[in-house]
Model the fold of this input.
Amino acid sequence: MGRSRGGLTTKIHALVDASGLPIALKLTEGQAHDGRSADDMLGSVVAGNILLADRAYDCDALRQTLTARGAWANVKPMPRRRNIPAFSSFLYRYRNLVERFFNKLKNFRAVATRYDKSPENFLASVKLASARIWMRFNESMH
Done:
């Protein structure tokens, strides 16, 4: 989501619920593998849940972790994968809730322009913006 000081990129990883509201947020370096970095974000995924993710998260370790929890991973498989796991393209369409969350996040100038250069401060800005997104959603419900 932008360049940091030194020319390195930073990725924001988000776990959102069925309403598109953030549950877990994390920052990683741009060159880090997405599938391996998602393990510590899956604490709120319980039995019966379905995780929708893009190709970057396609790894057997992630699928095994979710299977052990009783959840199902609907992750789009990589094109060169030999053993293609079960995948529902119908359910995959709901992954746009994550993209919508990132578009809402980009409305906050400090996040979109990466105003804070240190990763800790930038993650704090992302979390503040996420809290505002939660508040907007709850205001519209009343």
In short: The beta strands are 10-16, 22-29, 50-53, 72-75.
